[in-house]
Amino acid sequence: MTYRKISYSQAFLHIFFGVAMLLLQKIGNNAEPLALALVYAMPMASLSPLLTALSYFAVSLFSKNTTVILLSALQASLLYFGFLVYRHALSKGHHANKCAWFALFSLTLALAVFVLFAPFTPYVLPFTFANELGAIGQKVVISALVFLLAGIFTVALKAMLGKFLKCRLKGDELVFSVLSLVLLGVGFCRFLGVNAYMGTAFFILLLFACVTKDATAIVCAFTLALPPALTVGLSMERFFVYGVVVSLFIKSGRLSATLALTAVFFLYGYADGLYTYPTAELVVAILSVTLPALFFMLLPAPFIRELENKLVFYREKHLSRIAINRNRATIGKQLYEISAVFREIQTTFSALGDSQSEKGAKEYIRNCIVEEACKNCAQYRACMRKGVNAELDKLIEIGCVKGRTSLIDIPKYLSEVCFNQSNLLYAVNRRIGEYKNYMTEAENSASGRTLLAGQAQGVSEILRNLALEQSEPLRMYTDKERAVCTALLSAGIVCSEILVYGEDPTLSLITFGKADVKKISAVASHVFQTPMMISERITLTNDKFCCILRKKPYFDAAFGVATATKTDEYASGDTHTVIKIDERRFLVALSDGMGSGEYARRVSESTITLLESFYRAKMPSDTVLSTVNKLLAFNREETFACVDIAVVDLEDGKTDIVKIGSPAGFILSGNTVKVLESTSLPLGILDCLRPDSSSYTLYENDVLLFLSDGITGAFGSTADLYEILKTTPTSNPQQLADFLLDSAIQAYGGVAKDDMTAVAVRLFKAVA
After folding, report:
1. How far apart are CA 511 and CA 296, in angstroms?
2. Is the pTM of this model over 0.90?
């Protein structure tokens, strides 16, 4: 036989249940063995049979009756050996239900000892048949009751030790647990008195209400009311009032609930004539409420929070959150695999270069020249033996560089051995023309492959970033969910579901009735201690909807745009856009197409549309700009555009600015003007693009200003425009844009000599 080592928690449990045995023994007047039900239940709930038997024997010592002590020792021994046999049978692999008969048989023997030998004075009961039973009959009834309690305690103990604060109890488990606690409460009242019980009940009620903060405190109060009602006939309605008062005031804090409970107690004391009691009784009664109130107020806040977190963890729904994170992980894995596909596409396009195409084309030209001009020559074999192929390669090389060959291009050795130079030059020049066409097509093909490779790389990066973002489990904030629920209920808003998740917490909730989004935002902002805004509102039914709230950015933005088309033109070559990239960032762009008129408008609009699409897809900036540049460069006509781009983060004001061949832009900050210049060529001129990119931080009331060359050209120089901006009010971006446009037209003599556009963006602190 092997014995398990007893842990501190096990020892504490046995001490606690030893006290419970003592309370059960005090329920009756004849040392009825009600504690035997607990002695049976404890080993069934995996507690130590030996310590359980010793606890039962120790409790019998309080009876101070030698016969009762000896009988208790015998009963404890019977149950101990019964459970030894029970556990031995279990270890042999027998079914638990069959093994339980050994324990039940030992309980039956222990109760038979009580019926046959225990001293017992029959109770005088209001039922005639009960009085006629006599001592033996009443002991048999009590034994049957102990048998019933053994089953009840077994279910209750297994539930409390195995499931409490881990999962929800079943209905029978909850009822049996409450019944067990009520019986212990009756023993408490009879053993230590009603005042001691009331003090303990007040403390339990306050602690329970503080942890739950809902109407279940009323149910707790009802349960606590049963023992004094059964023992001394104390009215249960006053406990109902206690529960209601504590439930109402606990949301305002521990002090409010404690004072409210104490006030109601003293009001009931006045109605009961408590203040006419003798001093000793009055002091005991007052201490029964003041001491638990004081202990409750002195409980450390971390201890209360730990209990709240455990209860929240017990109540919350975990499967939905696990399902969300599992789905995110699955999607992330799939996105990563798709990202790998596009990465392989990019690698393949990059690897399939034409490094050998030029060499192969020149070899082909040489073979064709030999076939056309040399094979019919009488000196063909002699020339081949002398190695003229190398000389032909030199002639072809210079011809490819110049585009055409002449007599002066023929290498010296070849001119000495070749007797048919005119036919040779004719064949070389004809094949070089074909070579130029071939190389043009090869270059276009290579450029197309480079473009597709860049796009594949961009898509791969997007998918990889999405995969990493989706694969990371969402962080959940159960404490915030509880706080939001409580705050919304206090504001009169009922929510059936609340979920708080993410690094910058996102709040989702289901609520009913009129959608008071302002009140919901205000409550959420108060709980999170940061401004929150309604990001989405989804209607589920006529009176049920879902609100999604996110952190409100620190800044908001105001925009101003002023445009004018060149006189006598019906279409402007200037195009601008402002798009929202995500909850925190937006993009502003200005494109100035070549010249004026319809063609310039198409170029400018195409550039802006491409930029919008790529940035919305969150493609890397380098890939976006190089792709747009190549697409414009593919056009056979001259197609280029000057572009200003800014991506602004409304949370911290960080701004990434890209300028490509555009005129000067400006950042206006109070009386300070910062000039943004570009030294790069416009989009679409060269295949290789080197844009001017920089990062700045915009602060409250700063203005970002983009201008097309139609406006900057009207002011003569950047220095003149700089001086004007230093003295121009910037509080209203639309007025600023209108002022610059009007000033430019006036500088041109009242005629728009070019397409003109001014785009102004001003940051200001968002309203909390």
Report:
1. 35
2. no
